[in-house]
């Protein structure tokens, strides 16, 4: 009888062990995508002082996110309500649940073995997403879409190393409306037409060189300044799937593809972390998509990243990676500015964080530098400004600073600053110019002030307010020739990757007031409402304002005398937008589908000054064929399967 009881107990223990192995919450060092809704929860929890502060370096790893969720679940109901704990349990299951073998709800097959007592795992699966958007305006309608199938493999190699490879396709359409052309180099500031306001690097052999121009388009199928392409490199137009059908943009239906991957490692009890991979990132962002340095809306690039936690309150981060070509020949006007040969750059940045209960600060430097074996930029502890001072002025060096005051349980206020270039200690666009810096083209910088607060009576709900100003020519940089590494061609060192800004998502010479309300009221519903008021210097037409495009270049001569007067020196486009979106996960019905819907109201108009371009005048509202008023709405819908 005792033998039978022992056998029953052993069988029961084996069943429990099998269940434990078959249903696991796997902690790994792969990234949780930076667009995931869980970041809203983590941000809210940190503002309430409920979990340890996380780095200003994102994306976070699965282990970081799961540890934070477990910390929140361990708190009593007075700090984290039962409704919020239900949200946390749902997020933990969605993000980290692994069932050995095939799992229909994830469309994935999970393998976990321990040869030689070393944990090895592989999670192989697929997913599908579709997004549709229709812009309905008084000037006409425009429809866009992305259909994105994907497959992935990810897992662990022992207790310190994780890997992830994600391959996807994209059936995409985003029609563009031609607006005009941007003059790359300013036409004012000097008298020599051979050297000022002309494309001296592309037409230097011509007797009468012409101004360099880049075509300007508007994507009206999506909300202004919101769309980021998904596909990488080039895209095949479905109307011509041959090599000649390879395009830089899907005005019609096209098929593109791409890949993101990473190998990550962590050591010394997670005090040292390395990532070698191509992922979306955000550095020093005080709010979602708020970073002036490396924004989550920037295109990903392959890099080696690292973060060293010296003390809980002191961290050091670094990144060095190869940037990608804009592949935008379709916008080329009177120059080959956007050829791949002119974008052969590496991006390096370092950041120091001081993180205390009521205050945190991050500061650092970044550099865009032509490809070569340059130890000073590869070595993360050497400051980029000091190093350029040692080797010569060949590279685009930048400084940044973020400061935030925190009141746990209430919210935070912050100030961010990004410095592209100033005119030394001069009073003309330099440090000694004071508030006059806002009127000198040589003072190229961006800043942001903001506040974010917890809404206590709704689960995981935040409200934020921020103002961002991007000065003319900020994020741009003069093309260089005769560098030791590329002596026969001009290299663009603009602060861009794959044709988009690495920093804030607005172009130079613009500002934005943004108010956001984000909430996660139930385990399966996520919603947000956003108001935006944006002003931007016209980058096309007869009254365009120089320095208003990422392709702008400060005139090589007389740049010390060039002034700018925001809203008062030419035509400016104004936007007022109110948008909202909601997502609903059907997992409450055991269905692996998420539905998304959104709507936005848009009204835009132009103002123009009554003086000469580049000179200060009075501005008033205009409505012309070149600069028309436009109003309408943008409706969107989407579905995600097995996400």
Structure description:
The chain is mainly β and 643 residues long. 11% of the residues lie in helices and 43% in strands. It has a domain at 23-98. The strands form five sheets. The chain has an 18-stranded antiparallel beta barrel. Strands 1-3 form a two-stranded antiparallel ribbon. The longest helix has 21 residues, at 2-22. The two termini are 51 Å apart. Mean pLDDT is 88; it is low at 1-23 and 187-209.
Would you tell me the structural class of the helices and strands?
Answer: mainly beta
Helix % is 10-25%
Anisotropy-based shape: globular
What is the CA-based Rg, rounded?
A: 26 Å
Mean pLDDT across every amino acid position? 88
The oligomeric status of these chains comes to single chain
Largest sheet: 18 strands, antiparallel, barrel
Count of alpha and pi helical runs: 6
What proportion of the residues form beta strands (DSSP E)? Answer: 35-45%
What ranges have pLDDT less than 50 throughout 5 or more consecutive residues? 1-23, 187-209
DSSP E strands, number: 31
End-to-end span in angstroms?
51 Å
How would you describe this structure in keywords?
643 residues, mainly beta, 18-stranded antiparallel β-barrel, two-stranded antiparallel ribbon, 6 helices, disordered N terminus
SSE topology:
Layout lengths: L1 H21 E3 L12 H10 L9 E2 L3 H12 L8 H15 E3 L1 E3 L4 E6 L6 E18 L2 E18 L3 E13 L3 E7 L29 E6 L13 E6 L8 E2 L6 E14 L4 E8 L2 E2 L17 E11 L2 E9 L22 E11 L3 E12 L4 H4 L5 H8 L4 E12 L3 E11 L22 E11 L6 E10 L25 E2 L2 E2 L8 E13 L2 E13 L34 E14 L7 E17 L9 E4 L7 E12 L2
Antiparallel strand pairs: 1-3, 2-15, 4-5, 5-6, 6-7, 6-31, 7-8, 8-13, 9-10, 11-12, 11-13, 13-14, 14-16, 16-17, 17-18, 18-19, 19-20, 20-21, 21-22, 22-23, 23-26, 24-25, 26-27, 27-28, 28-29, 29-30, 29-31
